[in-house]
Amino acid sequence: MKKIAIISPSIRRGRKSHRVALWFKSYIEENNLATTEILDLAEYRFPLFDERLKKQENPLPEAQEFAGKIRSADGIIIITPEYNGGYPASLKNVIDLLTDEWRGKPVAISSVSDGPFGGTQVITSLQFTLWKTGAWTVPVMHPVPRVDEAFDEQGRPADPDAMIKRAARFTGELIRCIEAKTGIAD
Fold first, then answer.
1. Are 178 and 74 in contact (CB under 8 A)?
2. CA atoms of 39 and 52, how far apart (whole Å)
């Protein structure tokens, strides 16, 4: 079975993007698409980037664990909020921390905002950063506008039918990219 890591990068109090991470985990597992794990950066609490993991003399065990989870995932979903047109520093921090782990990894982006555009302004900068690491960004995006209205705190969508339809296309493209990379279909 495929393995998908879902990165929830917001570390803010009252964050709302994590709701989308909870939903994707539920959706993927309920539809038997893959096994999933949410990598919640609020739980990791990495220090500010000072050197790539592979060049650190005494890397934190949490950093090594995180790198292993990225390495072992067949694909990744990043649920990123948009902060002033950019993505959270916590996400940039872990992207820069790793090197080989991102190379060739299929990565799908779901952007989130409180406003009407669903964080779409963040997609280009995040795609560029991932491209520079050698990650394979999936060509289908999943913007979530007005996240506070779209999902409750437990990650339940206000309009399940519409969300399932959008998620099917998004996750389907990620699965297609994983299968193209590995040559294996479940």
1. yes
2. 19
- What gap in Å lies between CA 104 and CA 181, rounded to an integer? 8
- CATH number of this structure's domain 3-182, picked from the four choices 3.40.50.360, 3.40.50.150, 3.90.1170.50, 3.40.1190.20: 3.40.50.360
Boundaries of every domain in the chain:
3-182
Query: How far does the chain reach from its first CA to its final CA, in angstroms?
Result: 6
Unique residue bearing structure tokens 């905002």? 113
Q: How would you write the pLDDT of the chain (186 residues) with one tens digit per residue?
A: 899 999 999 999 999 999 999 999 999 999 999 999 999 999 988 878 787 888 888 888 899 999 999 999 999 999 999 988 899 999 999 999 998 999 999 999 999 998 888 888 899 999 999 999 999 999 999 999 999 999 999 999 999 999 999 999 999 999 999 999 877 666
Phi, psi (degrees; rounded to nearest 5) at 37: -145, 135
Please state, in angstroms and rounded to a whole number, the distance separating the CA atoms of residues 186 and 44.
32
Q: Do 119 and 82 form a contact (C-beta atoms < 8 A)? A: yes
Q: Do 43 and 66 meet the contact criterion of CB atoms below 8 Å apart?
A: no
Coil, strand or helix at 79: strand
Tell me the pTM. 0.94
